[in-house]
Amino acid sequence: MKKTLKLSVLWLARALGLFGLSRRLTRSKLRILCYHGGNIGDERQFNPLLFCSAEHLDARVRWLKDKGFTVVPLDAAVDGLATPQARPALPVVLTFDDGWYSTYQALLPVLARHGVPSTLYLCTQYFERGNPIPPVVLNYILWKSGKSEIDLAGFGPGIDGHHVLADRPATRRLVEALVEQLDAIADPAANRALVERFAAAVGVSAAELDLGSRRFDYMTPDELARIPGLGCAIELHGHVHLYPVGVPQRLKDDLAACAAVIRGQGLPEPRHYCYPSGDYDHNAHAALQEIGVKSATTCLPGLIDTATGRDVSYLPRFLDGERIHALEFEAEMSGFSDFLKRLAGRG
């Protein structure tokens, strides 16, 4: 009901020309968009903010072009943060998080066809391991099973026993215990065998899981090396996918490890960072400045007029995906949603 009411209000606002007015009033403000992986099977039904179809992204880019937006590279956009008057009309940056194979296989070709640039924030630990991403594939398996309760045996302490999946804290602990096991298995074949054994234990066949499609994998080094040719720059998402709240030295060490892997692939020195899961604290700016990181993006939506000093380390970004209705996307990109938030005192 709440969603329906929201969409009705947005439809009326668009019909009254308020979206167009908002675009004109915010034409110099920068927007940053965030996507993750593409869709190969039914991943977008499992997590519609983590995975989206090529058709979804294509429709978004076509709308942006039709409304006069200019897609700009992240580095150029950051260099112009202090001078909005020098920006092109309706500037927008397209970014991807993580490093999914499906980003390479399904989404980046869409942007290449449209001739627009993008940025990939790469999480390097999972990239180096080359296995299915444990928390994602495990939660997918539980979703795919369709079960409310499961019984496990032969997996070890913290895993074996009866589990009520509606008990979210307990289910989270189950997944964490399985992730710990998978992270300890370096051999790809053995790692995938454990994933398939867990899937079979809850009633999901190997064919349904379809690990061979690589829909839960990151890119290989050869694939990563090709994406600059698709107009995509490689930047920092951390070596581990976890922000070390309150420990700035760990942040610096983590980003040094991430940058070393990226350089080791023969790619340019990364200078921009995306907070994993959008987590950050007040220590981030000083730490990023010390190691020469030019900008950092959050997962909080908003438009950027000017950004100097600390603001550059906490840039807003809109997380788009299959769960976002076209009207919600248009309201955000037009600046109408930002107007409503400011009207409500939440800008």
TrEMBL record:
Concerning InterPro entries, the annotation shows:
Glyco_hydro/deAcase_b/a-brl, NODB_dom, Polysacch_Deacetylase
Instruction: Kindly give the Pfam families that the UniProt entry links to this protein.
Output: Polysacc_deac_1
Name this polypeptide is given? NodB homology domain-containing protein
Query: Where would you find this protein in the cell?
Result: Secreted
Q: Which UniProt keywords apply?
A: Signal
Start and end of every NodB homology domain?
Answer: 90-347
